[in-house]
Specification:
This protein is of the alpha+beta class and 283 residues long. The protein has two domains: 49-169, Formyl transferase, N-terminal domain (Rossmann fold); 178-271, Methionyl-tRNA Fmet Formyltransferase, Chain A, domain 2 (Roll), CATH 3.10.25.10. It has helices spanning 18-26, 39-47, 64-67, 91-97, 133-157, 189-199, 265-271; strands spanning 6-8, 13-15, 53-55, 75-79, 102-109, 119-126, 205-209, 212-222, 233-235, 241-244, 249-257, 263-264. The chain is elongated, with a radius of gyration of 22 Å.
Length: 283
């Protein structure tokens, strides 16, 4: 079961999700409901008499009649955080934004409250100092697959142990809003680089140049006191681009104009004149 076909890519042409595509290629039965709780969805699922349900990044609320439909009475989920930290829709981006040095996968039971179910297995992994949400997400997907196989084996063997989460330690990881993309140059460079990493490769952190959106897809922080107001561009004789922040310098490494291709900073500067002293962040 997966989401309905959605518009994807620049042309927004409707196309199946990766899960739907894999099911279609393998000839597996496939449902793509707008709302999984509808009676016409629950009935054929019940007819299959499933033992257990597995949920990963499904993106819809699952009503009780679906959660408790399998023979074992529950569904399991592989959530991309060390629960109870970062409950919600954007745990990977929020972990990077928070400056976490470690994250992982928690296999839990699906309950009415989001990501609050008891946990049976945790796999930890460090977050690389330069790792962005895209690369970290790919690593966590592989870890999740292995963790689910192990958890299902334990459940089938009857030796699984469930540990309730400590709700007092819970933090939330809500879906990223459009304003989360904006770079506030009054912040320090380290915080801004974390935002760039958390939003890369999509939708991308952004600033503004001459009223036009400019995506910053990779960057590094450089020490030293900035010699201008936050957002001021410094372009030295050697072509090195830096931006003054509220604490240190941010050196963009990959940029993308609206409607253009993502380019390494040197290639971007060859195609677009950016003067020393220009201000970023002004719409």
């Amino acid at each position: 079961m997966s989401q309905p076909d959605r518009g994807r890519g620049r042309g927004r042409k409707p196309s199946p999700s990766p899960v739907s595509a894999a099911a279609l290629e393998s000839g597996l039965p496939l449902w793509r409901p707008e709302r999984v709780g509808e009676a016409e969805v629950a009935a054929p699922l019940a007819a299959l008499r499933p033992d257990l349900g597995v949920v990963v990044a499904f993106g819809q609320f699952l009503p009780k009649r679906i959660r408790e439909l399998p023979g074992r009475g529950y569904l399991v989920n592989a959530h991309a955080s060390l629960l109870p930290r970062h409950r919600g829709a954007a745990p990977i981006a929020r972990a990077i934004l928070a400056g976490d040095t470690e994250t992982g996968i928690s296999v839990m039971r699906v309950e009415k409250e989001m990501d609050a179910g008891a946990v049976c297995l945790v796999r930890r992994t460090p977050i690389g100092a330069e790792e962005d949400a895209g690369s970290l997400g790919q690593r966590l997907a592989a870890i999740a697959a292995e963790a689910l196989v192990e958890a299902l084996g334990r459940i089938a063997a009857g030796d699984v142990e469930w540990t309730e989460q400590d709700a007092s330690r819970a933090t939330l990881a809500p879906k990223l809003a459009p304003e989360d993309r904006d770079l506030d140059w009054s912040q320090d460079a380290e915080s801004l680089v974390r935002r760039v990493r958390a939003l890369a490769p999509t939708p991308g952190a952004r600033t503004w140049l001459d009223g036009e959106a400019l995506r910053v897809l990779a960057a590094r922080a450089e020490p030293g006191r900035a010699d201008g107001p936050p957002g001021r561009v410094r372009l030295d004789a050697g072509g090195t681009l830096r931006v003054a922040t509220g604490g240190g310098w941010l050196a963009p490494l990959r940029l993308q104009r609206a409607g253009g291709r993502a380019l390494d900073v040197d290639e971007y500067l060859h195609g677009r004149r950016l003067s020393d002293g220009a201000m970023l962040g002004q719409r």
